[in-house]
Design brief:
It is a single chain. By secondary structure, the chain is α/β, with parallel strands linked by helices. Helices cover 40% and strands 15% of the residues. It has a domain at 41-50 and 118-323: Alpha-Beta Barrel (TIM Barrel). The strands form three sheets. It has an eight-stranded parallel β-sheet with strand order 1-4-5-6-7-8-9-10. The chain has a two-stranded antiparallel ribbon with strand order 2-3. The longest helix has 18 residues, at 136-153. The radius of gyration is 19 Å and the shape is globular. It binds zinc ion. The site of zinc ion has 4 residues, from loops.
């Protein structure tokens, strides 16, 4: 047991993208309660793995409110915004789209200081893989609306871009985020999270002044790995996007995890079980958790051929800088 204690906090992380309001962390899957609420156990596993902070993602007005409440309770941080697949809510909202934006605005304004504060606008952006939730035109319109909030409150953006790079950067440029992360128009840059684009896209986004965040989905294919190699260390952030984006067998990242020492493997990938066979203290198969962020860093350190210390310290420092944190 003593060796385990010695490795605790060896590397420090802030998970910049975690969907901690997802009901699966309370044992509920697609409306069905499959096991007890194990959020506290998840938090303990995260702490053991060196995750000292989290930015809880808000993906709609309702979920941003929940993210904000949970962030206060747990002394983490949150984002406020509406995901491209959820922007249909703007038009359906009582009072219409303007009222929806005003409600997001109010939530940001009421939560800019202290514990659990809003540190970014988002997640927002474009997702052309899932246009059945909202048409591209609708996504574009409400992506632009949310950029206004980032300028107004001088907050970084927490961005989502899927199969939409051309339109994504076009809108950012048109709204003044084409260089220095939009500093000239009151913006404070941002991060393109869960990155799965090409290395050319990496270069363009870095040139515009944006950070890029890597998780298990960013390390799936050979092409993905090439893109992650192209991210400059001073523009890289780390996240899990839990409960999504687990690193699983068949992903190209697996070959880099074979060298993960057992002491770290126990912290980053604790034993798991199926939700139906839930056992207290174990993680759930297929449900990603913040403790797995160490696995992401492990792969990145090998791809970039630098030490684990350097990757984790850089990502940690970048996170403090972008989101203005002092933890
Ligand atoms: Zn996303």
């Amino acid at each position: 047991m003593t060796t385990e204690v010695a490795t605790e906090y060896q590397f420090k992380f802030i998970d910049v993208g975690v969907n901690l309001t997802d009901p699966v962390f309370r044992g509920s899957y697609y409306g069905k309660q499959k096991h007890e609420d194990d959020l506290n156990a998840l938090l303990e596993r995260a702490r053991n793995a060196g995750v000292s902070g989290m930015i809880i993602t808000g993906t709609s007005l309702g979920e941003s409110q929940e993210a904000s409440t949970l962030a206060k309770e747990l002394d983490f941080f949150c984002t406020v915004g509406c995901h491209p697949t959820r922007v249909g809510e703007f038009d359906k909202f009582m009072g219409g789209a303007d009222a929806y934006l005003a409600a997001l605005d109010k939530l940001v304004a009421s939560n800019l200081q202290g514990k659990g504060r809003t540190v970014a606008i988002g997640e927002c952006g474009l997702d052309y893989d899932r246009t059945h939730f909202a048409l591209p035109e609708v996504q574009q319109k409400y992506f632009r609306s949310q950029l206004i909030l980032a300028k107004k409150y001088h907050l970084p953006l927490f961005l989502h871009s899927r199969a939409a790079h051309t339109d994504f950067v076009k809108i950012l440029r048109e709204e003044g985020f084409g260089e220095n992360g939009g500093k000239a128009v009151g913006g404070k840059g941002g991060v393109v999270h869960s990155f799965t684009g090409s290395s050319e896209e990496v270069s363009e986004l870095m040139d515009m002044g944006f950070y890029i965040s890597v998780n298990g989905c960013s390390l799936k294919t050979e092409e993905n790995l090439k893109s992650v190699k192209a991210i400059h260390l001073d523009k890289m952030l780390l996240e899990t996007d839990a409960p999504w984006c687990s690193m699983t067998g068949g992903h190209h990242s697996q070959q880099y995890l074979t060298t993960l020492p057992l002491s770290l493997r126990e912290l980053y990938f604790p034993p798991s079980t199926k939700p139906e066979k839930f056992t207290p203290g174990k993680t759930v198969k297929g449900r990603n958790e913040p403790c797995a962020i160490g696995g992401v860093a492990w792969v990145v350190h090998q791809l970039h051929d630098i030490s684990m210390e350097e990757v984790t310290e850089k990502a940690f420092g970048n996170t403090l800088e972008l989101f203005g944190l002092n933890v």
